[in-house]
Design a protein that fits this description.
Layout (H helix, E strand, L loop, with lengths): L1 E5 L11 E5 L9 E10 L2 H7 L11 E2 L5 E3 L5 E4 L2 E2 L16 E2 L11 E5 L3 E3 L6 H5 L1 H15 L7 E4 L5 H12 L3 E6 L2 H10 L3 E4 L8 E6 L6 H7 E9 L13 H6 L3 E4 L5 H14 L5 E6 L3 H9 L6 E5 L1
Parallel strand pairs: 11-12, 11-14, 12-13, 14-15, 15-16, 17-18
Antiparallel strand pairs: 1-2, 1-4, 3-5, 3-9, 3-18, 5-6, 6-10, 7-8
Helix pairs in contact: 3-4, 3-8
The structure holds NADP nicotinamide-adenine-dinucleotide phosphate (NAP).
The site of NADP nicotinamide-adenine-dinucleotide phosphate has 33 residues, from helix 1, helix 3 and helix 4.
Length: 323
């Protein structure tokens, strides 16, 4: 079948290991099913995979892609929950299996004609969402939903700062926070992206690192090193920083520990989300009319263009591949 996969790793030039070609049809273990992929969204995770983060040499070739929307074996419109739990996992639906993996880590990913997934990972797609829109939900939008409403504990009337407004997770954070009744501040390095963040629902936008007119209840962090200090300094006493990514790198010059203990700040990690949170997010979009921002949709055989745009940071919202 047609597939976009990683053949080798390069930390400096990740696109050298990217192949647009053919791979064998998926193997389908007991309790799993297949989804015919109609649309699949690109995530920074796919670039990390080409850099060798989270994958080992002996796992190659690996079909990339965590997110998909398409048709199940009976022709129903579905989306795929990208988190694959260990078969022995017996935890509740609030927590995530510590032995989990994402599609394209241990099991082949979604940038292909077909993907095999555990039956429980198939979620109905509302007719109001297009395949392209639904494909944006399983990673970036689910991560944003959990960061705001579960790990961040935010509610209508709270004030939130979103760093790096142009990203896939960041655009989801802005749109979901606005729909959830929050006051939304956002930063971006780029003037054009700041303007688009306002159109998307941010109440106020600032250059990265700029002094803010007010302290916020919570900061949503996916940038890491480049914005961490600013994020900590933006919080009111007792405020919360939720971190789910480190696009600019994980090593900090100054973790701002003194400020963290003196102001009794809360530092919370967040990753992906549960199947029931994905179902709630889907309902929220169906009910509110909020839709993922799609930077561009490309036929999957032009995936290399999408990867290059993401590597260059030349993106506002999600890049989606269609079949
Ligand atoms: N833990 C999880 O489950 C999970 C899930 C999804 C994503 N993530 C992680 O979250 C991060 C974002 O993912 P994504 O898919 O949204 O990536 P993306 O679409 O490529 O967005 C990256 C964002 O980072 C900002 N940025 C990059 N370098 C920066 C710098 N030096 N200074 C300031 N801002 C900078 C950019 O903001 P501007 O250009 O607007 O300034 C851009 O919005 C990635 O590291 C990804 O691995 C984690």
């Amino acid at each position: 079948m047609f597939a976009v996969y990683a053949e080798s790793f390069s930390s400096d030039d990740p696109l050298t290991g990217l192949v647009v070609g053919e791979r064998p049809d998926p193997e389908v273990p007991d309790g799993w099913t297949t989804v015919n992929v109609k649309a699949a969204a690109l995530n920074h995770h796919d670039l990390w995979s080409l850099r060798g983060v989270g994958l080992r040499e002996e796992q190659l070739p690996m079909i990339l892609g965590c997110d998909a929307a398409g048709l199940d074996e009976d022709g129903n419109e579905v989306l795929v929950h990208a988190v694959v739990s260990d078969p022995g996992w017996t935890g509740d639906d609030e927590t995530l299996d510590p032995k989990r993996s994402l599609l394209s880590e241990r099991h082949q990913g979604t940038f292909a004609d077909q993907v095999a997934v555990p039956r429980a990972n198939v979620v109905p797609k509302p007719a109001s969402l297009s395949f392209e829109e639904a494909a944006c939900l399983p990673t970036a939008w689910l991560t944003a939903y959990r960061m705001l409403f579960k790990q961040g504990g935010l509610k209508a009337g709270d004030t939130v700062l979103v760093q790096g407004a142009g990203g896939g997770v960041a655009t989801a954070l802005i749109a979901l926070a606005r729909a959830g009744g929050l006051r939304v501040l956002a930063t971006s390095r780029d003037e054009g992206k700041r303007k688009r963040a306002l159109e998307l629902g941010a109440h106020d936008v600032f250059e990265s690192g700029a002094r803010l007119p007010m302290k916020v209840d919570a900061v949503m962090e996916t940038v890491g090193r480049a914005t961490w200090s600013h994020s900590i300094r933006a919080l009111r006493p007792g405020g919360t920083i939720v971190t789910s990514g480190t696009t600019s790198g994980p090593k900090l010059d100054d973790a701002e520990l003194t400020r963290i203990f003196f102001l009794q700040l809360r530092v919370i990690g967040s990753t992906m989300g549960t199947r029931s949170e994905l179902a709630s997010l889907t309902t929220m979009l169906d009910a509110t009319g909020v839709r993922p921002v799609i930077d561009r949709a490309l036929p999957m055989d032009r995936a290399r263009e999408g990867f290059a745009a993401m590597a260059a940071g030349d993106v506002f919202g999600k890049i989606v591949f269609t079949r």
